[in-house]
TrEMBL record:
Record Pfam families: ExsA_N, HTH_18
Record InterPro entries: ExsA-like_N (IPR054015), Homeodomain-like_sf (IPR009057), HTH-like (IPR037923), HTH_AraC (IPR018060), HTH_AraC-typ_CS (IPR018062), Tscrpt_reg_AraC-type_HTH (IPR020449)
Keyword hit for Transcription: yes
GO molecular function terms attached to this record: DNA-binding transcription factor activity; sequence-specific DNA binding
SMART domains reported in the protein's UniProt record: HTH_ARAC
Protein name: Uncharacterized protein
Cited SUPFAM superfamilies: Homeodomain-like (SSF46689), Regulatory protein AraC (SSF51215)
Amino acid sequence: MSVRNSAIVKAPQALSRPPYNQSVLKLKGLSVIESCTHTQGTKGTMFLEDHLLLFVLEGMYTVRFGNQEYTVLKNEMILLQKSIVVEYEKSGDSDSEYKLDYMMFFLKEDVLREFMKLADYKSSYPALIVPVSVHSVNDRLVGYLESLKPYFNDSEKINDGLVKLKLLELLFNVVDADNRFLLQFLQLKRKTKKGIAEVIEENFMNPVSISDLAYLSGRSLSAFKREFQATYNTSPLQWIRNRRLDKAEELLTHSNLSVTDICFTIGFENAAHFSKVFKERFGYPPSALKKA
């Protein structure tokens, strides 16, 4: 398992706040992030709280998930499921002063359900798993994305109903541009069961909620909690905390990372809270191991 040494950004909720300050349109079930900047390479890590549909209009946006890497170029799009951690790298084109122009649509499941119902698509799941892939954006979609930009200039005055109509228009255009996206939309709702042990070992250092873990395991929240309790004889929250603290002790002893870096690496979001619970578990503060 690789070790990260920086905080994971929760997306979309953290992207509208400093230091990111990106333009946002919000509606129940949807957040749209618009960014136009000049960069020669900005890297980071995001935890996707919702499904992400990403479009690049200028430049290049690279996404890494696990061992896979996907590069989204000008006039291309990619769809990623929620509750996963991805690394990203943003780069502008040297021919356009390193300009990077992209839009990110964070979609909640109820929005996809409404779209499927309105479009009268069959709800049967695809027999063939469609891997995450990059697709071309046609002229109609490019025109749609450009038409949305004025909405960011006065987003507080935009009616929610109008934003929802624009979102549904987007989803129809996406499926019309490449019908493989319909299979990917259906896959997002697919409940493929995975072993609980596999899911939590892969994600205990990520800023996941119990609902996220249940989703990733293909179970309802109540079924996940019930099965977890029966397997581990403790609650998911307690198990994850102890697992993180054990990992923290290992890193404090065998790595050169600072206490703060280790705090963020193992999924804690507050260094003072991390130090407190670490001392409660081991009887001494994490700083004691760095002085040893």
